[in-house]
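Annotated sample (chain length 176).
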Amino acid sequence: MTRSRKLMASLAATLVAGFAIWTYSIYRDTSTYAVHFTEEGFSRIRAGMSTQEVYSILGGPLAINTTVSPEAWFYYETPIEPRKNVFNFLGPVSRVQFDRNGVVTKVSGIAEHSCHIGMRQAEVLKILGQPAHRARRSAQTLHYSSPGTYGVFQARMLSVGDENQVTEVIRDSFHN
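Output written by the structure step:
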């Protein structure tokens, strides 16, 4: 083999090796996982499982994010005369929504005539009385992975609802 062919073969081998190293560094998983996390365990998680079942399979998550939706009060009005709306089996409904400080942020239904944005919960109680139903939803996201500084991030998260049951299993891949 001539000297120029040896040089070309060496250059080609260097380029191939460089490309392989670059590809590995770009596409390797740099995610950080919870201590007892395994892909096999994560694949066993299903919607409807309790957090206790999840913890027994995967252990604790790396992080937990909790979001709480605003509190809403519902007032169901008993119809005195027949209504044309046959789909609303409860009759007309009024809804009063509050922020986390107990201040009205939204009013719908007949309550719009007596309540307004900016009122406090105590004022609403004086005017409308006790609600038929109070609702406040909270949701948690259990993070079983977190991204590295570069490469591929394997997102492994679970959404958990009010009843401490899994509502969604999130499995996704991202490139950093």
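Annotation: The beta strands are 32-33, 63-68, 72-76, 93-98, 104-108, 133-135, 138-143, 145-146, 152-160, 166-175.
Annotation: The first strand starts at residue 32 and ends at 33.
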